[in-house]
Design brief:
The protein is 27% helix and 26% strand. By secondary structure, it is of the alpha+beta class. Residues 366-376 have a biased composition (Polar residues).
Amino acid sequence: MSGGVDSAVAAARAVEAGHDVTGVHLALSKNPQTYRTGARGCCTIEDSRDARRAADVIGIPFYIWDMAERFHEDVVEDFYAEYANGRTPNPCLRCNEKIKFAAVLDRAMALGFDAVATGHYARKGDDGLLRRAVDPGKDQSYVLAVLTPAQLAHSIFPLGDTPKDQVRTEAETRGLAVAQKPDSHDICFIADGDTSGFLKNRLGAKEGEIVDAASGEVLGSHDGSHQFTIGQRHGLGLKRPAADGRPRYVLSITPVDNRVQVGPREALRVDRIRTGRPVWLAPERTGSFDAEVQLRAHGEVYPARVTADGDGLTARLRKPAFGVAAGQALVVYDPDAGDGDAVLASGTIEETGGADEPASADESALSLSGTESTRG
């Protein structure tokens, strides 16, 4: 129970469903005031108090579990390391993977509980597969796609079939004081929302060049390549516009020489995406198959031809994406699976390319034949 409206209503619904429910709030910082301040639904002292009050109203036991050390090692340190290597991580995925559905679930199972219920907006089908929520604007299946089938089997998402406005109305009816509490949107461990400043305080300042990718001309300087991400347009500090007057975007980041390359938006076009070893939530597939892929939480969905070769996934998009960065997650959906979009697999993006790059022999042959195979 984070202290927000979603987890409070999820807990109340779990009780009504007949489960023996215990509320747990995660203390993720040794000093909560160093994380987000104000009542925003995550990581503050006020949030722990809101969660306790909600548990009292629902009538369930309530505990605070100290996960600060594990959270710092697995989420915050990973965040630093990824940016230092020129990648763009999603800390919410890492938190779900390492904390909420690993450390918490492991402890819960050891204590004799059967599952962890959360306020995430996602559904589990009758086949046990993870599916999008009914409310597309709140769907969180993307950030849950790092779960293993075993973790998913012991997870419950009571809100997946309900639009957010109805959840707030239900909270009011139940007498929960958090009914109108604002949602949390920022990174929970960056108190003021200043990601650049947060990284600079840890990784330091180091002057480097901002270079035109086409001409090699030095256009400006910066004090740390870790402050940039692929596709970034604002905050480049360039005093001279491009010759054609169009805006420039970050195209590449090379931490080794601390250089940032910029260029026009069309240079961000991506048609091919390659991931590292995937996590399969559905029975593992090999070969090529048609699917839909999502590259950001609440981002656009792209039809694609996906090839799985054991070591990773290669997605060839039917329409181009722009500004895709290594470190983000690629999540693969089957849009025709039973009662809604089912998550098949996810993988961390390692590299991207353009449509003019030739397909591998495996991709070409399988794409023509349209065959696919599965193995349990």
